Amino acid sequence: MTEHTTNHMPRRATTSGLIGCRHCGSVWAQASDGAPCARCGTRLHLRKPDSLNRTWAWLIAACCMYIPANLLPVMITTTLLGAQNDTILSGVIYFWVSGAYGLAAIIFIASFLVPLFKLAALFVLVVTAQRRSNWRRAERARLYHLIELIGRWSMLDVFVVALLAGLVRIQGFAEITAGVGIAAFGAVVVLTMLASLSFDPKLTWDGVPDGDTGSVPPTQTTDTSRTSSPKDAVHEQP
Amino acid sequence: MTPVSDAWVCDGCDAVYQRVALQRRELAHCPCCGTELDRHTGTQHERLLPLTLASTVMFAIANLFPIVEIELHGLHSRTTLVGAVIALAGEGMSLVAMLVLATTLLFPLLQLLILLWLLVPWRWQRRAAGFAWLVRSMQTLRPWGMVEVFLLGVLVAIVKLSSLATVLPGAALWAFVALTVLLTVVMSFDPRGFWEMLESDGDRA
Fold first, then answer.
1. Chain B residue closest in CA terms to A186
2. CB count in 10 Å sphere of residue B180
């Protein structure tokens, strides 16, 4: 799969002397890195500046917060029977034991598996990009898309706790307050989102033999095997 | 610096493709890494304004009315989104409160307001003030609006509470459901489309 993809890697902007604007999608020739886009004014960059360092910084910070997020209580329930501290996992266990398997699964996936998966996946992406590894580039690209897609859903637990804390305030009978853990948990979600936003997926493909040495703009090329038939790329919106 | 108008550069892998004119409902994906290259905008902005207006109305209902109400031993308690944020801030969780406020209220509201600001003058063939900056802000805000995640959070909270007390869904809950559906449609419009529209309509400024 990897070999197949690298063999058919089309011409790349870096080697063709082109820069694409990330914001408005325009393409420029003879533009220097850091110059503002003539259409929308965004600074043009071949790669996001300092991408790997920034991603590492956010990622390490997220890893540090992941520990308190799972160990400290996220929710404190005070009823007539006494106070009860809940961590993320104890909440899952509570639902599982009480028979709400679906709900237990949703919370377990969104609050425990997704952040863990995101940290691990970002780690893999950054390390392989740093080593300019040739390993499973297409799968790594898909992994990045997946991280971008699922990252936000970990905020679920933060919203649940916020809502419960606002709602269950019946003095004496039942009161729910937010625990410190939820602050750490929110930090993990935000930090991993910042990490995936500062990671440049183009770095995954750096080091691929380009196959095209000329700096002719793609528009002048008639060799369709190199510009990779765009018809393949077009399909119906769902 | 010269524009190359008939090329796409993939945001995911830097591959260069020959640009093709997209038909209605068509999308272009990079065959190499799967990143979306472009989508057809066409007349989408005409549908966008009424949808944005509807979203704004739903947004107001969703935030002004209580989301859920609980009843326990004859005692009632209910909350709006802002109420929950204030309660969190009162417990010394102001950072979490700000995070919730920003992702469920502030950012989605900003997105809707920016869209209205850009789309309303468009109907009279005018380009709104601060066009470039606002289109860019739209794209920056995009990952941070989390209304749909909040809706799932409300549902989980309701199930959690149902063992403790009687739960009565409020008007805002239905508004949130409608808002989630509307926002999904509105946000499927890529802000890049504004630049395409600008070009296809010639110089309007």
1. B96
2. 18
Distance, in Å, from the CA atom of B172 to the CA atom of A173, rounded to the nearest integer, reads 26
In a domain, B154, yes or no: yes
What ipTM was estimated for this complex? 0.89
Asked if A236 and B26 come within 8 Å (Cβ–Cβ), the reply is yes
Could you tell me which of B143, B201, B181, B190 has the C-alpha nearest to residue B44? B190
Per-residue pLDDT of chain B (205 residues; tens, 9 = 90+): 888 888 888 888 888 888 888 887 788 888 888 888 888 776 677 788 999 999 999 999 999 999 999 888 788 888 899 999 999 999 888 999 999 999 999 999 999 999 999 988 888 878 888 888 999 999 899 999 999 999 999 998 998 888 878 899 889 999 999 999 999 999 888 888 888 777 776 544 4
Range of the structural domain that residue B9 is part of: 1-38
CB–CB contact A25 B195 (8 Å):
yes
The tokens for A29 are: 């020739």
Three-class secondary structure assignment of B61-81: HHHHCCCEEEEECCEEEEECH
Q: Do A155 and B103 touch (CB under 8 A)?
A: yes
The residues with which B71 forms a beta bridge, in sequence order, are B76, B166
Domains and CATH numbers, chain A: 1-46 (no CATH), 50-205 (1.20.140)
What letter represents residue A213's amino acid? T
